[in-house]
Amino acid sequence: MSRKPFSQVSSLQSHHRIHSYKTLYDCDVCGKTFLYLSHLHQHHRVHAKEKQYTCEVCNKSFYQKSHLNEHYLVHTKEKPYVCEVCNKTFSKKSTLNRHYLIHTKEKPYVCEVCNKSFSQKSTLNQHYLVHTKEKPYECEVCNKSFYQKSHLNEHYLVHTKEKPYVCEVCNKTFSKKSNLNRHYLIHTKEKPYVCEVCNKSFSQKSTLNRHYLIHTKEKPYVCDVCNKSFSQKSNLNQHYLVPTKEKPYVCEVCSKSFPLKAALNRHYLAHTEEKPFVCEVSNK
Questions:
Q1: What is the mean pLDDT of residues 33-55?
Q2: Rounded distance, CA 72 to CA 56, Å?
Q3: Domain 221-271: assigned CATH number
Q4: Which residue of 72, 94, 101, 253 is 20 to 30 Å from 277, comparing CA positions?
């Protein structure tokens, strides 16, 4: 007697039919078994490579009528499959099933090279390109290549100067969605990147990486004139202004110029009459 477990009663009932049916239909090619002859005939088309069901809108063809019906939803923009967890809708049931893995935290697709796991097979396939060093998607303008097509599409915005991603808080626009997501941290005041040495937190990973140079005492940014080194590129840029006597930061009130932005900010206090620095002894 079979002790196979099932999550749904309908699946168990379908399984019971396998034991109760006297006649089962086996595929001569792959040995797969079917309860109904019509299902076997439908399955045979997979091996025969016949795609007799054709979309009347775009002429794309399919092995099964159910797949064609599902495809039509692409044209009608219908999304009848709803996630029970977050109410997100999908046009395909298979896409909904893959989406559920996000909530269950399951990652069944494992890289054979580094054992990193993924929730979707397509993501695993893209990940393999990291190991093979393949970058199959090439920009037609500058010939720069990318691992993923989505990265290429995002890159094209550099050439077209488009910035389709808009901040809902301040309406600032960005060419990349990742840049918009990082920008949102400014409004939410979130600082998810924490220094393991001093526990100081930052809103961006790049800022954390620059901060680590303080602890490691590294100074990778070197002045071409005097060979003085700095831990941050911004400090090097400010240093360059000293020997050239450039003063690029101009006060909008009185037009006085300064070599450093910090000096301009201090100068603005004279116009606003702000006095942010208070003596702890006399409160003056």
A1: 75
A2: 9
A3: 3.30.160.60
A4: 253
